[in-house]
Design goal:
heterodimer; A: mainly alpha; Cytochrome C Oxidase, Chain A; two-stranded antiparallel ribbon; 68% helix; B: 294 residues; Four Helix Bundle (Hemerythrin (Met), subunit A); elongated
Chain lengths: 551, 294
């Protein structure tokens, strides 16, 4: 008995103390270590993208084009878009949180293909390195959408190199999606049926479908653009019979579903947070699970709403407009179910929950303004204005980034075995929420008043709202920098995290913090439903409470 | 912890799986998912093909007419036979028959190489005739007649004469189209078959006359798609042969048996997929609209 006590005092073997050399990280096949390497890379990328965003807001502080020349400004917003979309938003939640948690949540030792998982990280590094190299060489000025024929015939910038980087990066995302689908199909622990899966896993399943079906199309499209630039065939050049609209179809066939690659995992995180911090089984589990799949499916049928004014037939536009309205239904199902979960729940306002509540509000605004834009008549007025910019930032930042940060805080004790400062966590969550709204809400008004996107200068009467926006961006910046400080601080000085800091039933809370390399000492057998807060969920509550008391 | 992994020492079983069945299921689903993404990858090109074909059917018919259906048909046959030998490889792996596995893999590789060899013949034909749609990538010559690798100069001249083709002169290696098409377009115009895009696309906007240069641009799009699609397919064949080489090595070592053959099976899936892509490419590129005039 004494011997056991002594062992418990020492640090248990976990994935972090299982080897300290550089090689033990670079050649690891452990999904948790790969996720940590993704986390570090993605944070660096996010910082670079954020610096470009700061550049845009600083330029727009004044009506004249004074900080940058207009050509440079084109490059700045292009770089911001490319870095944020392709290198941050798409991999952020799947590659970091999904990678770390999916095997643990379903009770597996690892993903189905650990070596392919490591390969996808190397592909991500290679693709990102090529893109960053191209940006340092002089960059691109086509916008992140690479519209032809500007990108194929006229732009005199590093389109091919950047395209190559995006092409390569696409395969990182395809391989991650492939790995997730196979893992969820074949690696579930005994008793972990499909309808006992956490909704986070369902969301990633839907995301992976989009990754596998959509990404190859943009890969081939970008390849066509690159070949077009090298060989000058004219396949997108209208003067010799090519069709630039075909490019837009192919591009948006991926890039609209890509929006769901960004938002679906985030919705999965929010489902976890809302249910667990309300200590109540989520309302309408099956509806949320299938609404993820529905979003993935419908998401493939709405790409034409990006092209209402670019020469697509008006009848096609009508159909796309209606389908766009339909895709709002599953999204709304989620929001209603989340709020219904809160009702009569034991809601606690920990840092992750603040992010989750912020998400609901911001995603609601982002989603509803999406309906404005999906209505064809309205769209003609709002196309390419700041209204569009505000809309997709409400979804991408208010949705994806808040979900990512919420999830990161929620699982931080599990991932690192350390507790962060709850005080600073709450402060930063509120700063992000306030700063975000201050930045982007004025842009709705600016857009409605007719301020176009992608211009370095604007009429002086729009300056007040732009100053609000830039001021908000500073607050947002502080709110986003704070977590870097207190999370890194917690790694060294943070308190040791208990295995189950919030007394939750999920499988990830039943292994140690941080988990051992094999995730579980014994393969778990699942006998309880998802989000089961009753006494029959197999959780040793006395033991958990005892451990919590020691912290 | 060690006692939970009793299955660790089964041959070929990786640490994350509990048993061989789970591993094999995962590998198979994984390969199917990979093939799904391959379909979407080729799908982009097929979409481009369908869009341009429905827009310029006459130019595509003219371009298609100059592809050699004999070589294309032969390659189709070769690939179908290679699919048979591939399927037999899986069969013999399941029967734990090492010798026949090795034979069948060698045959599959042989047919794969024959396919690529034929492709080289076809591509060099296009090179010699100025049909590669990239300036400077074609044979540069100021001589009048180019003989193909398999014909004499006299034969070549005769072919040119009998088809009423202009002789091949191409000092800059441009794409050029010397094989007519005006008769085709005029016939289609007479019968009212021209699409809206063709009514604008082939004719001079001022004189309303047939403009060979404009027609050539559309044929060029056909050849561009031909090279993009068959090139991507050939690249997949090369990858397939690399996989086969690895498989041959493993089969030679006797790695595969009735208990463990999933690498053979999933390599087979890949090989069949590449075949099937060709089964679609062949009619679309070589056969459709081939006999508009005769």
């Amino acid at each position: 008995m004494e011997k056991v006590e002594v062992r418990a005092e020492q640090t248990k073997p976990n994935y972090l103390n299982n080897g300290y050399s550089v090689w033990s990280w670079l050649f690891t096949k452990d999904h948790k270590r790969i996720a940590i390497m993704y986390l570090i890379s993605i944070s660096v990328i996010f910082l670079i993208g954020g610096i470009y965003a700061a550049g845009i807001r600083l330029e727009l502080l004044t009506p004249q084009s004074d900080l940058f020349e207009t050509g440079t400004y084109n490059k700045v917003f292009t770089h911001h878009g490319i870095i944020m979309v392709f290198l941050f938003l798409i991999p952020a939640i799947p590659a970091v949180l999904g990678n770390f948690l999916i095997p643990i949540m379903i009770g597996a030792r690892d993903l189905a293909f650990p070596r392919i998982n490591l390969l996808s990280l190397y592909i991500y590094w290679l693709g990102s390195a090529i893109i960053l190299w191209a940006l340092l060489q002089g960059g691109v000025d086509t916008g992140w959408t690479f519209y032809t024929p500007y990108s194929t015939t006229f732009s005199n910038t590093y389109v091919v190199a950047t395209g190559l980087g995006i092409f390569i990066n696409g395969f990182s995302s395809i391989l991650t999606g492939l790995n997730f689908i196979v893992t969820i199909h074949t690696m579930r622990a005994p008793g972990m049926t499909w309808f006992r899966l956490p909704l986070f896993v369902w969301a990633h399943y839907a995301t992976s479908l989009v990754m596998i079906l959509g990404t190859p199309v943009v890969a081939i499209t970008i390849l066509l653009v690159a070949l077009e630039r090298i060989a000058r065939i004219g396949i997108f050049d209208p003067t010799i019979g090519g069709d630039p609209i075909l490019f837009q179809h192919l591009f948006w066939f991926y890039s609209h579903p890509a929006v769901y690659i960004m938002i679906l995992p985030s919705m999965g995180v929010i489902s976890e947070l809302i249910s667990n911090f309300s200590r109540k089984r989520i309302f309408g589990y099956e509806f949320i699970a299938f609404s993820s799949i529905a979003i993935a499916v419908f998401g493939f049928l709405v790409w034409g709403h990006h092209m209402f004014v670019s020469g697509q037939s008006i009848y096609a536009g009508l159909v796309f407009s209606i389908l766009t309205m339909i895709v709002a239904v599953p999204s709304a199902i989620k929001v209603f179910n989340w709020t219904a979960t809160l009702y009569k729940g034991q809601v606690s306002y920990d840092t992750p929950m603040l992010y989750a509540l912020g998400f609901i509000g911001l995603f609601l605004i982002g989603g509803l303004t999406g309906l404005f834009l999906g209505a064809m008549g309205m769209n003609v007025h709002l196309t390419d204005t700041y209204f569009v910019v505000a809309h997709f930032h409400y979804v991408m930042v208010g949705g994806t980034v808040l979900g990512y940060l919420g999830g990161l805080h929620y699982w931080w004790p599990k991932m690192t075995g350390k507790l962060y400062s709850e005080f600073w966590g709450k402060i930063s969550a509120m700063l992000v929420f306030i700063g975000f709204n201050l930045t982007f809400f004025p842009q709705f008004i600016l857009g409605y008043m007719g301020m176009p996107r992608r211009y370095a200068a604007y009429p002086p009467e729009l300056q007040v709202l732009n100053i609000f926006s830039t001021a908000g961006a500073s607050v947002l910046g502080v709110g986003l920098l704070l977590p870097v400080i207190y999370l890194v601080h917690s790694l060294v000085w943070g308190k040791k995290a208990p295995d189950n800091p919030w007394l939750l039933p999920g499988l990830e809370w039943r292994t140690s913090s941080p988990p051992p390399t094999e995730n579980f000492e014994q393969t778990p057998v699942v006998t309880w439903e998802a989000y089961d807060f009753s006494d029959e969920n197999g959780l040793d509550v006395e033991k958990v409470k005892k451990e919590l008391a020691t912290v | 912890m060690a006692d939970t992994h009793k299955t660790h020492h089964v041959k070929g079983l990786q640490h994350q799986f509990d048993d061989m069945q789970q591993q094999q299921e995962s590998a198979t689903i994984g390969m199917w998912m990979f093939l799904v993404q391959e379909i979407m990858f080729f799908g982009g090109l097929f979409t481009a093909y369908l869009v341009y074909r429905s827009r310029y059917p006459m130019a595509f018919a003219a371009g298609s007419n100059h592809l050699d259906a004999f070589w294309g048909g032969l390659n189709t046959l070769v690939l179908i036979v290679s699919s048979l030998t591939m399927a037999l490889t899986v069969y013999y792996a399941q029967k734990s028959n090492r010798a026949m596995q090795v034979v069948m893999i060698l045959l599959t590789m042989f047919f794969g190489l024959v396919f690529l060899g034929v492709k080289v013949i076809e591509y060099s034909d296009k090179y010699n005739h100025g049909l590669i749609p990239v300036t400077g990538w074609n044979k540069k010559t100021s001589k009048q007649v180019v003989a193909l690798p398999f014909e004499t100069k006299a034969e070549a001249k005769e072919t040119h004469d009998s088809h009423k083709e202009k002789p091949y002169v191409n000092p800059n290696g441009d794409f050029q189209w010397n094989y007519g098409g005006e008769d085709l377009v005029m016939l289609a115009k007479e019968k009212g078959w021209l699409t809206e895009a063709e009514k604008i696309g082939y004719f001079d906007p001022i004189t309303k006359e047939f403009d060979p240069k404009r027609f050539e641009n559309k044929v060029r799009i056909f050849y561009w798609l031909y090279f993009a699609m068959t090139g991507l397919h050939a690249l997949h064949m090369v990858v397939g042969i690399i996989i086969m080489t690895w498989l041959l090595w493993k089969a030679w070592q006797g790695s595969f048996s009735a208990e463990y053959y999933s690498p053979v099976e999933i390599s087979g899936l890949y090989w069949h997929f590449v075949d099937i892509v060709w089964i679609f490419l062949f009619p679309l590129l070589y056969l459709l609209g081939r006999h508009f005039l005769h």
